[in-house]
């Protein structure tokens, strides 16, 4: 019964997002369509032509990014669960984000307790961690420190992703997680919404603390495996 409810919720979330996605794709498509019509006229000066082509390229990239992010979320793999170590998954996520951090002058440090066992789909949790680490890095435009912590607290595994970046106002925090809310020129506004859905899907929760100009701390609470806290392999 509970599974049916969850599945129903996910379907309607997907339908809602699909409708929003169609809207989000239609706008750039209309822009590209308009510019193609302009370019078909002969009398366009060369520099104008290049300017139009640049805008069209940007719009196409935008659509591509939105669709890629949507599809990676909509992949029906949530049901493929296994027991894994959260610390190892965090290490893998750090490994993947390190080149991006380095090119943004961001140092990543981590403090992770050993043997943090969790049962779910590791790909989805990794997707969530990478989304949040990327946001942390992108919030530090002049570089900074991204601190990732993980520990067990009572019945929860607690993961913190802390940056020393631009931070958010209360109004910005209120909009966090809404589909297509982005303050970035090349943002999709899907990463946080997808991360929230993934954590909700494993009965976890996310707290956010932020201070404008100081930084942000995302805290993820995951219900720890009740059967064992240690991995056998
Ligand atoms: P995107 O990164 O594509 O903009 P997200 O859904 O990942 O989309 O994030 C939505 C918005 O939330 C960002 O554009 C940014 O304004 C804000 N945000 C998310 N994480 C952070 C953070 N760590 N620090 C400051 N702002 C953030
Ligand atoms: Mg993002």
Give a structural overview.
The protein has six helices and seven strands. It has helices at residues 2-39, 46-74, 86-103, 122-139, 170-175, 191-201, and strands spanning 82-85, 106-112, 117-120, 144-153, 156-163, 205-211, 215-223. It has a five-stranded mixed β-sheet. Strands 1-3 form a two-stranded antiparallel sheet. β4 (144-153) and β5 form a beta hairpin. The longest helix has 38 residues, at 2-39. The radius of gyration is 20 Å and the shape is globular. The chain starts with a helix and ends in a 10-residue tail after the last strand. The model is unreliable at 1-7 and 228-233 (pLDDT under 50). Bound molecules: adenosine-5'-diphosphate and magnesium ion. Adenosine-5'-diphosphate binds next to α4 and α6.
Summarize the structure.
52% of the residues lie in helices and 21% in strands. It is of the alpha+beta class and 233 residues long. The strands form two sheets. A five-stranded mixed beta sheet has the order 2-4-5-7-6.
What attributes does this structure have?
binds magnesium ion, 233 residues, disordered N terminus, binds adenosine-5'-diphosphate, alpha+beta, 5-stranded mixed sheet
């Amino acid at each position: 019964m509970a599974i049916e409810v969850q599945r129903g919720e996910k379907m309607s979330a997907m339908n809602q997002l699909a409708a929003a996605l169609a809207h989000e794709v239609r706008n750039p498509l209309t822009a590209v369509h308009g510019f193609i019509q302009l370019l078909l006229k002969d009398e366009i000066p060369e520099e104008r032509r290049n300017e139009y082509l640049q805008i069209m390229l940007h719009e196409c990239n935008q659509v591509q990014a939105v669709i890629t992010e949507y599809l990676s979320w909509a992949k029906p793999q949530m049901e493929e669960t296994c027991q894994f170590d959260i610390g190892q998954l965090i290490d893998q996520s750090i490994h993947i984000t390190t080149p991006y951090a380095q090119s943004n002058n961001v140092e990543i440090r981590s403090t992770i307790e050993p043997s943090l066992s969790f049962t779910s789909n590791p790909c989805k949790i990794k997707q969530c961690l990478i989304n949040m680490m990327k946001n942390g890095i992108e919030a530090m435009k002049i570089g900074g420190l991204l601190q990732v912590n993980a520990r067990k607290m009572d019945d929860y595994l607690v993961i913190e992703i802390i940056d020393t970046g631009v931070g958010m106002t209360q109004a910005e925090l209120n909009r966090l997680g809404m589909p297509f809310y982005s303050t970035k020129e090349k943002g999709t506004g899907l990463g946080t919404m997808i991360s929230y859905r993934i954590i909700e899907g494993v009965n976890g929760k996310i707290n956010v603390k932020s201070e404008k100009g100081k930084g942000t701390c995302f805290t993820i609470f995951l219900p720890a495996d009740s059967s064992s806290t240690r991995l056998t392999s």
